[in-house]
Amino acid sequence: MSKLKIALLPKLLQNVHKAQKKWRQTNYETSIKEFQNEIEQILEILNYYGKWNSKFKGDEIAEKMLPEIFMDGLNSLNLATFGLYKYANMCLRSQLETALRLIYFIDHKREFGWWVNENEWYSKSKQYLNYVWGDDFSYFKQIENIAEFDDKTTGDKKIYSSTSSGKSGDLLKKVYGKLSKSIHTSAQHFQTSTGKFSPKYSKPKMEDWIKTCKDVQCFIIVSVILSFPIEFKKMTQSEQNAILTKGVVDTEYKQFIEEILKK
Fold first, then answer.
1. Which residues of the chain have pLDDT under 70?
2. Distance CA 263, CA 260 (A)
3. 136 burial class (0-12, 13-18, 19+ CB within 10 angstroms)?
4. From CA 112, how far away is CA 119, in angstroms rounded?
C-alpha cells in the first residue's frame, strides 16, 4: 500500500488530518504519563475476557459476544486516552449491555436468534424492546448465585438491588444511568465547537472515566462468575485468583464469591 501523501490531500482534509494527529498524540501521551498504572490495570482486566472465551469453546453465543465485550472495553480505553470521554462512556455502556445480554442469551438461545434477526418478542407496548434484563435488572436477581450474593452484600455496596430503605445500593442501575447520560447531549456537552473540533485533555474527566470503567468491569466480572461458575472453575487457580484480585475491586465481593463457589 502506498504511503499517504499529505500534501496531495484536499485543503480541508489536510487541516483535519494535521489537527487530529496533533491532538491525538498530545492527549494520548498526557493520559499515559498521568495514569500509566491505572491504564495497565484496566488492560489486564480486559484480557480476562479472552480467558473466559476459551472456557466456552463451541458455544456460538459466547464466542460471538465475549470478543465484543473485550473490544468495547478496549475501544473505550482508546477513546478516553484521546480525550474523547463522552464517546468512551458510550462504549462502556455498550460493553455492559453486551455482557448482560450474554448472561441472558446463553440460557435463551431461541431468543438470541430472534434478537440477531431483529425480531421483537416483547409486547409492542414495552418501552425498551431490546432490554432483556427486565425492569431494574430483575432478571439477574432470579439467578440463584446472584440472589445469594445480593443477600450477603449490605448497604451501598449492593450491585443488583437497593437496601430496604431504598437509599443505597443499586450500583448496576446507577452506573448504567450514568453511562446513558453520555448518549444525550443535554446531559453532557460536546467537547467541540464551531471554532475548535479538537477535544482537550481533562484530568478530572480521565479520573472519572477510570473509576467508572473499573466499576463496570467489576460488575461484569462478578455477574459472569456468578452466572457461569462451572466455566470459571475450569480456569487454573492462578487465573481465578488474578481475576478475583484485580478484576473484582472490592475485597468483600471477592470473599462472598469464594464462599458461594465453595458450595
1. 1, 120-131, 163-167, 184-198
2. 6
3. middle
4. 10
pLDDT in tens, 142-158: 999 999 999 999 888 99
Give the three cell numbers for residue 114. Answer: 430472534
DSSP letters of 77-126? HHHHHTT-HHHHHHHHHHHHHHHHHHHHHHT-HHHHHHHHTT---S-TT-
Whether residue 172 contacts residue 162, with contact meaning beta carbons closer than 8 Å, is answered with no
Please name every residue paired with 193 in a beta bridge, in sequence order, or none if there are none: 196
Percent of the residues in the chain that have a pLDDT greater than 90, as a whole number = 56
Under DSSP, is residue 196 helix (H, G, I), strand (E, B) or coil?
A: strand
> Model confidence over 71-119: pLDDT tens digits?
999 999 999 999 999 899 999 999 999 999 999 999 888 888 877 777 7
Q: Are 33 and 70 in contact (CB under 8 A)?
A: no
Q: Which of 178, 130, 138 is nearest to 160 (CA)?
A: 138
